[in-house]
Design brief:
Layout: H1 5-16, H2 25-35, E1 40-46, E2 49-58, E3 64-70, H3 76-90
Antiparallel strand pairs: 1-2, 2-3
């Protein structure tokens, strides 16, 4: 299931804290709404809650641009990155 804009913004607020204050909530929402439909999304949920996501846009058959990436600072970060890379080969 693809994450919603609200889920992504909520995760960003939880993990980034005050680091994302340069953009207003409305600006962030607008960027997500523009980017989400153009991206391939890799998301991880635990207990139905979004805990990590990445948005990738294909540039060529072998190159992808990462538009958004949010994963908590845990040992699971490497597994999430590897999972996204494996999925991108199938898109």
């Amino acid at each position: 299931m693809l994450p919603t804009v609200d889920e992504c913004l909520a995760l960003d607020r939880r993990t980034l804290g005050g680091m994302d204050e340069q953009l207003s909530n409305e600006q962030q929402r607008q960027r997500f709404e523009e980017t989400l439909p153009l991206s391939q999304v890799c998301a991880v949920r635990r207990g139905g809650v979004l805990v990590a996501y990445a948005m990738l846009q294909p540039q060529t058959d072998a190159r992808w641009f990462v538009t958004c990436f949010n994963t908590p600072r845990t040992t699971a970060r490497r597994r999430f990155c590897m999972s996204c890379m494996r999925r991108s080969r199938r898109w």
